[in-house]
Amino acid sequence: MSEPFNQMSLTRRSDAYWRVTFNHPPINLLDDNTVPELEHLLDLAEAEPKLKVIVFDSANPDFFIAHFSPAAGFKNLVTRKPNGHFPWTDIVDRLAHLPAVSVAAVRGRARGGGAEFALACDIRFASLERAIFAQIEVGTGLIPIGGAVDRLPDLMGRGRALEVILGCDDFDAALAERYGWINRAIPDQEFEAFVEQFARRVASFDSQSIREAKRLVTLHGSGPTPADYDESAATFYAKQPWPGTAARFPKLLELGSGQHSDLELNFGRRLGELWNES
Amino acid sequence: MSEPFNQMSLTRRSDAYWRVTFNHPPINLLDDNTVPELEHLLDLAEAEPKLKVIVFDSANPDFFIAHFSPAAGFKNLVTRKPNGHFPWTDIVDRLAHLPAVSVAAVRGRARGGGAEFALACDIRFASLERAIFAQIEVGTGLIPIGGAVDRLPDLMGRGRALEVILGCDDFDAALAERYGWINRAIPDQEFEAFVEQFARRVASFDSQSIREAKRLVTLHGSGPTPADYDESAATFYAKQPWPGTAARFPKLLELGSGQHSDLELNFGRRLGELWNES
Amino acid sequence: MSEPFNQMSLTRRSDAYWRVTFNHPPINLLDDNTVPELEHLLDLAEAEPKLKVIVFDSANPDFFIAHFSPAAGFKNLVTRKPNGHFPWTDIVDRLAHLPAVSVAAVRGRARGGGAEFALACDIRFASLERAIFAQIEVGTGLIPIGGAVDRLPDLMGRGRALEVILGCDDFDAALAERYGWINRAIPDQEFEAFVEQFARRVASFDSQSIREAKRLVTLHGSGPTPADYDESAATFYAKQPWPGTAARFPKLLELGSGQHSDLELNFGRRLGELWNES
Questions:
Q1: What is the full DSSP assignment across C2-70?
Q2: Which of A84, C67, C222, C240 is buried most, with the most CB atoms less than 10 Å from its CB?
């Protein structure tokens, strides 16, 4: 079987323009099985020389990608690739070097690893009314890996990145745009047409121009490197679980983490009420 | 003759404050002859120790600088300078290291090489109602060189830079400000007074302070280097014309590229209608 | 005496959350004696493993920190630390590497060295109506040291940083937010509650998560280094006073620099009227 996708679907709108739709009920959690699916998608994309643009969206209007599953294991996630990188580092790096441009079309919540997946895309558009972004990891006794500690300072400056990462609050699309987290927030009623027009437009341009321009932007040296991504992953996975994680996760699971719950709908606000200052 | 300018005029408002006005009908195209004029201007500026600020503006209210001429040759543009750099790299680098501060005062359209010239200035102010910015190159089968692939990611982050460079659409001044492309958008009625006040203000400050502060800002290492500029230029000039360029330019010329045409007035929108997805 | 603070007070709201309030009448000037007080504060903070967040605010609603005293000497400021760094470099670097997060809660004016202190904090929140930011140094015949020439380009891009540093004008909190100088501007009526909630929230999160996340954000290489800070300090202190400084300071002192004066309340605007273009 050439397209064994269970958590997402691939629609080839043309050879030049693909849509990938996350559809992993109930709330589009990432888990250890997401890794081989994304790797397979990248295999396909790298093998299609006519491909110019991939748009990632979600079948769930409330959740783009909730975050990594709090229950699943992470065997795939910690098995280094032949090139020495963690799999998530490798996925992020392959997306950055893919000749085609990747666009995260975010409606609903993108938190934790879901926010990091949006960061790994070249471009981020968001529904003004429906999109919510958060790096909730520190508030749950974890740290963000997969690019947040590396990419957010480049996009929004160190001060705003530290507020996002240490404050762990929800950012609506308007605030995310002001901070530079996303390209821009589009009114939900116009959102799909805006994304479609952008994708079709790029798909009508010259392949060589797109490929070389993206390569030159990526080449310019100030961005994070795979070694940066590996550093945060190694810090996190070195000793699991961290005591703070172990202490906080039972309460999060009890409150509905990983399910279509009030906690998942309002994670940013709820995190401010859960723990005692100490 | 000491000031042989044909495409621009130089007005010395004082020893400390110069205005350079682009005036190259019909739409302020850059071409191969612009190179020696800008080099001569830089010779003069580097030789005037009292100079503190140069403002670049346009005599044409519709066009700051349209873009590079689609018809002209590029003998000067590809002849490396004695220091090994492409001439445009050298111009950009000399502007960055000039002791005086350079200000692009943008009314009308600044696209392609015109947008890159504005990027090469230290500071960019724009008329809220009249200024339009675009990197149209990829949409015409070219790539941006002269600093766009290098400088835009530093100003607006990689995601927004890729949207600008791969989407090739027009950005009005308000959106350009939100993206960080320009310093700020000023209502057109206040624009000239705002720019004049800023220039006079800087011209009243201490030369040594201005020179050292600009040197220290430029020294700080995260920005692009002349080698970065040369890389994009070499990629572009290595084999000319690219097949995609050759395929698309006849239609652009037929539609009025380089003339005061509907295409030139609305280049961003029109680019979305010209080509077939393939 | 373990807490010999004369220019500020330290309130331990809990082991995890400290407030430091600048209180140095009449306008919270920094001077040579501020250096050992800040160094002592950092000694205390580095020795408290439970500390997670320090908020810096001011007892004076008109001035967060006015700037460095125009009258005081700078014996401490120019005496290199055992690690070879200038003291202000060392303070900025210790703040960046402190395991706890530092928050500048700015009401009133933060200019010159006061703006640089806010830049040295990890996060900057500001009162929408009351906060004013400016780097006035170039307009007074000095240059900004202590991080402005290094950090501002990272936060707001080179063009806006040059406008701030060479234009020396006052920026209200709304404009400072648009430029990325501060995290965000909060209506004054909500300001204290907003800062308090943010601080309490972070103080309730896991220490290891906060520490490691801040370390990884700081590790990412694109920001300025202590060597960058030392370079601007060395440039400034190498030969004192600069002729431009000597020429301009008598007039500034006569007009009330360092006192609760009209000059200090409106420094940005007044600087545009003081000197002749030459």
A1: ----SSEEEEESSSSEEEEEE--TTTT-B-TTHHHHHHHHHHHHHT-TT--EEEEEES-TTEEE--B-S
A2: C67
Residues of chain B found within 8 Å of residue A16, distances taken between Cβ atoms:
277-278
pTM of the entire structure? 0.96
Using CB atoms, which chains have 3+ pairs under 8 A with A?
A: B, C
Q: How far apart are the CA of B116 and the nearest CA of chain C, in angstroms?
A: 14
The pLDDT of residue C3 is: 59
What tokens does A63 get? 């959740």
pLDDT band (50, 70, 90) for residue A2 = very low
Whose CA is closest to A120, among A132, A106, A136, A138? A106
Q: Which helix (H) or strand (E) holds B10?
A: strand B8-12
The CA–CA distances, whole Å, from A229 to A120, A232, B117, B206, C60 equal 11, 6, 35, 45, 44
The ipTM of this complex is 0.96
- pLDDT on residue B4: 80
- Report the residue from C155, C209, C222 with minimal CB separation from A222: C222
Of C152, C244, C272, the CB nearest to B208: C244
Domains of chain B: 8-274 (3.90.226.10)
Residue pair C153/C169 in contact by the 8 Å Cβ criterion: no
| C218-277 pLDDT tens trace | 887 567 888 888 888 888 888 888 999 999 999 999 999 999 999 999 999 999 999 987
**Phi, psi for residue C71 in degrees, rounded to 5:** -105, -35
> CA of A5, closest CA in chain C: separation in Å?
33
* Option in A137, A143, A159 nearest C122 (CB): A159
> Tokens representing A8?
């997402």
Q: Which of C18, C23, C25 is nearest to C7 (CA)?
A: C23
- Reference B264, options B67, B97, B128; nearest CA is B67
Q: Which amino acid belongs to residue B48?
A: E
Which structure tokens are listed for B220? Answer: 């700080």
Q: Which among B14, B101, B121 has the least Cβ separation from residue C166?
A: B101
φ/ψ region of A200 (left if φ > 0, alpha if ψ in -120 to 50, else beta) reads alpha
Q: What is the pLDDT of residues A186-203, one digit of tens each?
A: 999 999 999 999 999 999
CB A18 within 8 Å of CB A9: no
Highest mean pLDDT out of B229-233, C166-170, C230-234: C166-170
The pLDDT score that the predictor gives to residue B3 is 59
Residue B103, SS3 per DSSP = strand
C159: which chain B residues are within 8 Å (Cβ-Cβ)? 121-124, 155, 182-183
Collect all residues with Cβ–Cβ distance below 8 Å to A21 and sequence separation of at least 6: A8, A9, A11, A56, A57, A58, A59
Instruction: Give the Cα-Cα-Cα angle C51, C57, C60 (nearest 5 degrees).
Output: 155
Shortest CA distance from B272: residue in chain A: A201
Strands B171-172 vs B184-186: parallel, antiparallel or unpaired: unpaired
pLDDT in the model for residue C229: 87
Select from A42, A193, A38, A210 the least CA-distant residue to B278.
A210
Non-local CB neighbours of C120 within 8 Å, separated by 6+ positions: C91, C92, C95, C96, C102, C146, C147
Q: Distance of alpha carbon B233 from its chain centroid, rounded?
A: 15
Region A128-156: mean pLDDT is 94
The chain B residue lying nearest A224, using CA atoms, is B158
